[in-house]
Design goal:
Helix content: 55-70%
Number of domains: 1
Number of helices: 21
Distance between the termini: 15 Å
Largest sheet: none
Structural class: mainly alpha
Order of helices and strands: HHHHHHHHHHHHHHHHHHHHH
Length: 468
């Protein structure tokens, strides 16, 4: 609730000054978030060592350890949720270590794999566990909002500069290089656009004191960013997540049928639009190509390539349970992170596997996969399954189930969770630290929004100042 009739002295009358350790705890969470969220743009602008992009591997678990051992939550629910998170993370860690031991993977492989998958849950557990005063919560929310605006503003600044040749993005054009705070990275445009869409929906739903035209404009700007950056995958994931949300939260069969009819109509209208509006040409480019779709099409051949190739390297039934080892197949770690940073990780004892090279060879040898990540055989769920097997995949999904059951109390949080589920079938976005830590922070923010007993105005929020 964000009342518009607050008295000028309301905040001073109702918000007590938080204790110092509470202030420090909120600051630590924001530092952990920022290290991952801003590392790429920081390294690109300052020419700092690329190794700083991986600082989150250390910062997030250290911050979580400090908060989880020093904070004192106000109620048992916070403690129970955190304990459940830690139990799920322990299961994931156990499977990761078992997979590494069975497949002779390096210790650094196991640590990187666990932290890449587990850090978002560690950050979310810290947000849940940390007691926040009204003022601490307002500061936390303000930083997330400002960070979201910074991402969107940078993306819109980068587009004309790239188009004019003023800046370069490692050979990427103005659309693919439009990465916001994720500039420069291979799929930065998709990640940045997704962050903007998530934030646009959040601002529309939660910034109740802001004018409706402003809230709609911010969401419209996010959609325009998707269009400019040619991030078709974002709309695919959001649309898929929206369909799943409609059917997972709908208990009335008649309403579910109405939703189904509505979805069909939306698809029909969109199909008409992409063939009649020139600006939507990118969405029909693959529909017009021959031999792409169908059981014998190119998409059906290349997309599941990992599931054909990886089992040929299995040595026993145990590989089905715990995979080929962390970083040994087609996740973000085995796909390119180890190779791109081999001078660092190789010296620390990291290992690689021929299964990764085999799938990469299939990827680079296929014209369709190279044209769009929608058809890429390297994607999140295939990577987790290939690295950690069915047990590792189950442990990760169990952590997602904890978030769904214990944290997701509003439809935006559920939509983000379900769209992340769909992203897992497209590319390795569910292993992108900046994106996943942002998603965890925004879900945690929504959870806090629902729980705050003391009303907060948006008087200190960027772009809108409320005068009592």
């Amino acid at each position: 609730m964000y009342p518009s009739d607050l008295t000028p002295g309301w905040q001073q009358q109702n918000i007590r000054e938080p204790k110092k350790w509470l202030y420090d705890g909120t600051t630590l969470v924001l530092v952990a978030f920022s290290v991952a969220f801003f590392s790429r743009i920081f390294c690109s602008v300052t020419r700092a060592p690329a190794a700083l992009n991986h600082a989150h591997f250390v910062v997030v678990p250290v911050v979580a350890a400090i908060i989880l051992t020093t904070a004192k939550p106000k109620n048992r629910q916070q403690l129970r949720i955190t304990q459940t998170f830690l139990a799920g993370l322990m299961i994931l860690f156990t499977v990761t270590v078992a997979s590494a031991l069975l497949n002779n993977a390096g210790i650094v492989n196991a640590l990187l794999s666990f932290l890449m998958l587990g850090n978002p849950f560690l950050l979310l557990a810290s947000i849940v566990f940390l007691p926040m005063s009204a003022r601490s919560f307002a500061r936390f929310r303000k930083w997330i909002i400002r960070s979201s605006f910074a991402n969107m503003a940078l993306a819109f600044c980068q587009w004309p500069l790239l188009k004019a040749g003023v800046i370069a993005a490692d050979g990427l054009n103005e659309g693919d290089g439009m990465g916001g705070v994720f500039f420069v990275s291979g799929a930065g445009n998709y990640v940045s656009a997704t962050v903007s869409i998530y934030f646009g929906i959040y601002y529309l739903l939660f910034a109740k004191a802001a004018p409706l035209w402003l809230r709609i404009s911010i969401l419209g700007a996010a959609l325009f960013q998707v269009q400019l950056s040619d991030s078709k995958q974002v709309l695919v994931a959001l649309f898929g997540g929206g369909i799943l949300l409609a059917f997972t939260t709908m208990k009335d069969i008649s309403k579910a049928l109405m939703y189904a009819i509505g979805i069909i109509l939306i698809m029909a209208v969109f199909y008409w639009c992409i063939y009649n509006i020139d600006g939507l040409y990118a969405f029909r480019v693959y529909l017009d190509k021959d031999n792409v779709w169908g059981l014998d099409g190119e998409a059906a051949y290349i997309k599941p390539a990992a599931f054909r190739i990886i089992p040929t390297y299995f040595h026993s039934f145990l590989n089905w349970l715990v995979g080929l080892g962390p970083g040994h197949t087609v996740g973000r770690l085995g796909g390119w992170l180890l190779e791109e940073n081999w001078e660092i990780f190789g010296a620390l004892g990291a290992t690689r596997h021929p299964a990764s090279e085999a799938v990469l060879a299939a990827y680079f040898g296929n014209w369709l996969a190279l044209e769009s990540t929608i058809f890429c055989p390297l994607f999140g769920w295939a990577g987790i399954w290939g690295d950690l097997g069915l047990l590792g995949l189950g442990a990760y999904l169990f952590l997602g189930y904890i978030v769904w059951q214990c944290i997701c109390r509003d439809n935006l949080s559920r939509l983000m969770m379900l769209s992340v589920l769909v992203f897992g079938f497209i590319f390795t976005q569910i292993e992108e630290p900046g994106f996943m830590l942002y998603t965890a922070a925004l879900i945690g923010l929504c959870w806090r929004e629902q729980r705050m007993e003391t009303p907060q105005s948006w008087s200190s929020t960027v772009l809108y100042y409320h005068t009592p």
